[in-house]
Amino acid sequence: MSALTDLYPQIQTCRRCEIGHSRTKAVPGEGAEHAEILFIGEAPGWHEDQQGRPFVGPAGQFLDQLIGSIGLKREQVYIANVIKCRPPNNREPLPTEIQNCKPWLDRQIELIQPKMIVTLGRYSMEKFFPGKSISKIHGTARREGNLIYFAMYHPAAALHQGSLRQAIEADMLKIPKVLAEATSIVQEPESPATQQQQLNLF
Fold first, then answer.
1. Homologous superfamily assigned to 3-199
2. Which of 44, 91, 183, 185 ranks highest by number of CB atoms within 10 Å?
């Protein structure tokens, strides 16, 4: 057991929200414990609720393909959601549910210490890009300290709106370069002018 996996039974027995009583299984997340890239979706769907694992339905299959397109496997990244239980009828997460799950997600980020967080969908994006529109910022990144935040459409968007598939695939292909550039910047000595430039790189 590790500090990260120690969280799982706590999440699985959480009853802070009403959906904690209606779910089949909570979905804490899974992947490499010290992954460089952390993908954060919105909420579990039907397939995830049945299995207790994130992104295992059709959207998850597409996400696996996307991860493969940059030379990685699911086991090399970490995948989680903003909320850990499936909302009834796959409705959108409520603000109270997002707030109640916030400590779980924040603790996961603290323990994994990723170099990049990839937001999948607008609820995940709102946490790290508040007030922004996903149609305007998808495929862009910002740096805060040593951590890069990169915004993408949710993979499910391509299943519902085929015209977005190409954009999602193109955005994913940007990730290795953004991560490599960010890592090289972190290794360089920083001056105030350099710091300002870094904020505007992406």
1. Uracil-DNA glycosylase-like domain (3.40.470.10)
2. 44
